[in-house]
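Protocol step 4 of 6: structure prediction from sequence.
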Amino acid sequence: MRRRALPVYAAAAFAFLHLPLLILIAFSFNGGRFTAWEGFSFRWYRAAMNDAQLTEGLVNSLIIAVSAAVLSTVIGTLAAYGIWRKTARILSGTLYLSLVTPEIVTGVSLLALFQWVFRFLHLQLGIYTVIIAHVAFSIAYVVIVISARLRNYDRTLEEAAMDLGASEWHAFSRVTLPLLAPAIAAAALLALVVSFDDYVITSLVAGVDSETLPMVIYAMARRGVSPVVNAVSALIVVAFGAIILISQRLQER
């Protein structure tokens, strides 16, 4: 009986977690402005597509997320490999510290750093400061994903390649890197999602010309519940759900 009850509990937990999202997606197709169903319609999706502020926020979010994902993946992969080769337990432990640190603390510390640096460089907050901030907190996610893959990696493969005349760099690029490719791709997708979704840190380090999509959505939601927000949120949920599924498939390879 207990074994039969487990799938029921799992289904109940799944429904509890995802019921709000399902309701949001359902009402994104509501023809009316309120929660009373007034008929199926794509009205709010068309309104979202024609909103200039949402479009600008989406473009900024994509630029920031792609840039941060590429940079953090490169840095994080090399960092994970270095930690694995040298068995740096203290350094690997500090990575988890960055994950449990509240975002507001991370954002304030980055803002303080930028303000201190800008005294000498005479710069202002902008899209580049957001990218730097996103790289800073995305590296930990990349390192953790790559490190998990490296735990099952056989070091003798690199040693065999170097015994056959390959340099340390060639052994890494020709042997280790191809085997890490699925994990690297999964880490890049995870960094992309984390960067695109961030609001707290972004709102602290963004300039007037670097407003992201989450910031626009939050500003719209504060003015009142808008069906356009439902439509945009539904699109984000579907897109990110697909990315997460792809990331999980890549990690299983």
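Step 5 (inspection) to follow. Residues 1-41 form one domain.
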